[in-house]
Amino acid sequence: MTDVMVAVERSFLVPPGGGTSVHQRAEAVMAELVELSEIGTILDSTVSADAQRGEFTVEVTVAAEDLDDGIARAMAAMRTAIHAVGDATPGWPSHEDVMEMIAQTMRAELVEA
C-alpha cells in the first residue's frame, strides 16, 4: 500500500579531468533514472548540472508506505543510476545517517520558524 510520495534531492561533485563533463555525467545519470521510471521503481526524477561548480543535482520521487521507506527507495534509485553509468559512491551515507540528518534538519527548521 502506498501512503506517501517522497522526494529526495542530493548533489554530487564531479572531479575535474575525468574525461566526461558535468553535463555529460548528468545526462547519463538521467538516462538511467528514466529506465528506472519505466520499470516502476521511481515516479519522477530531475537532474540539473552546474558546470561552474562542477556538480550535478539529482531529485528522485518515489511512492512509499512511509518516510523511512521512501528515503530508502529514493536513495537506492540514485545510487543504482550512478553505478549504472560506471561511477562509484564512496562515502555513501547509511540509511540511519540519512534519517538522522533529516531529523536534525527538521529540528532546526522547527526552531527557526
Structural class: alpha+beta
Give the strand tally.
Answer: 3
For the largest beta-sheet, the strand count, sense and barrel status come to: 3 strands, antiparallel
Number of domains: 1
Helix content: 40-55%
Euclidean distance between termini CA atoms: 33 Å
By CATH reckoning, the class would read Alpha Beta
Tell me the β content. 15-25%
Shape: globular
SSE arrangement:
Blueprint lengths: L3 E10 L8 H17 L5 E7 L4 E10 L2 H18 L10 H18 L1
Antiparallel strand pairs: 1-3, 2-3
Description of the structure:
By secondary structure, the protein is of the alpha+beta class. The protein has one domain (4-112): 2-Layer Sandwich (Alpha-Beta Plaits), CATH 3.30.70. It contains three helices and three strands; from the N terminus they run βαββαα. A three-stranded antiparallel sheet has the order 1-3-2. A hairpin with a 4-residue loop joins strand 2 and strand 3. The longest helix is centred in the last third of the chain and has 18 residues, at 67-84.
